[in-house]
Amino acid sequence: MIKSLRGTKDILPDDISTWQYIEAAGRDIFNIYGYKEIRTPIIEEAGLFIRSIGDATDIVQKEMYVFSDSVGRNIALRPEATASIVRAYIENSLFQAGGVTKLFYIGPMFRSERPQQGRQRQFYQTGLEAIGSDNPFIDVEVIALAAKFLERLGIKKFHIKLNSLGCQKDKIRVIEKHKESFKPHFEKLCETCKARFDKNVLRIFDCKEDSCKVVAENVKAESALCSECAEHFEKVKAGLDAISIQYTVDNKIVRGLDYYTKTVFEITQESLGAKDAICAGGRYNNLVKEMGGKDTPAIGFAFGMERLILALIGVAGHKSQVLGLDVFVAVTGEALYNEAFKLLNSLRMAGISSEIDYDAKSLKAQMRKAEKLGARFVVILGEEEFKSNKVVLKDMEKHNQEEIQLDKLIAELSSRPGLVLGSTTKGGK
Ligand code: ATP
Ligand code: MG
After folding, report:
1. With CB atoms counted within 10 Å of each terminal CB, which end of the chain scores lower, N or C?
2. Of the residues 275, 278, 283, which should be mutated to test ligand 1's pocket, given the most ligand atoms within 8 Å of the CB?
3. How far is the CA of 102 from the centre of ligand 2 (A)?
4. Which of 313, 346, 381 finishes a domain?
């Protein structure tokens, strides 16, 4: 039997409500802050990510799914969304609207890394990008929004770690400083980090090898910001303080992707263990220009949805709910199936969620099925009652039943509180 690929997961109906809950909470809060949803393709030219994320990063070197299509185009399954959104921003001239373009997304990303708890090869991210301003209040807005999203989900114990890498010039200085600090410990680094030392020294801080973690913990990490970038960072911190968003400044938060400049941040949730990063983000003031657009500063973040779900269940005690059923139509004899099916159709057209048992079974078996499906009401079509156009309406919650005129059934049901779908799609045609 063919099984799902390692590192991919089916999200089954029993769990879907948790996903929908997170998606709805995200959409709500993103809209409140003025962000509009964008959906970009899952496949892109591989060069888009190589150029933006950087060819010395793990994502590009080891994790990206790249293949040639039938005419030899180099195609990648997107490992993240920022590069695609910047491409879409330029390609569709979204800048023409002026001001800050605020976009959010929800969707699958792909990275070929070793699967483990909180780490998959197809995983989901929800995130946003604010393109068009270097104003520190945008940084504050974006970070605050990430925090408010978590609070809305009931995930309270999270930790925001904040840093500034400065502008491109500062970043070069930061890189040189870090090289100096790592140099005496070079021999203790893993082979990958030895290679990173020259190509992407910042990435050493993200290494998961114990030996490298010890080195990274012990090296000093000084900030090396020019006065303009230092002032920008001060304003970001003051803005966060002004609206009581808690954070700690951590010079070792460097985010290894090439495109980051100035503000970078990470949000962790300790209950998640080793994979405790639920959100990562930062400014990328040069990316739009590097991708062929105008010089346009921008900032964004991405949440890992699998990790959000782990936190939601672990910390906020969230339980997934299976959507119940309004009405189960039970039939006492084969002869009435036609009528039952007609009734089922009318109920559904009235926006009342309803089910029937297609295998003719005893009334007792049908009642068991109704219970299993969590039906709020059972409508029983019995031969005797049906002769006078009546059915039995059984209230499964109140444990009572009454005879009711068939043509009054829908009006009666619609007037009862607590219908699952009846409340949201009533009157749907
Ligand atoms: P990590 O340090 O965990 O590898 P990362 O630096 O690769 O994370 P980003 O590229 O910044 O992560 O992605 C943002 C968020 O997406 C992460 O904080 C995490 O929650 C989530 N994420 C990243 N890779 C995976 C994955 N393979 N499976 C599940 N979630 C992931
Ligand atoms: Mg990673």
Report:
1. N
2. 275
3. 25
4. 313
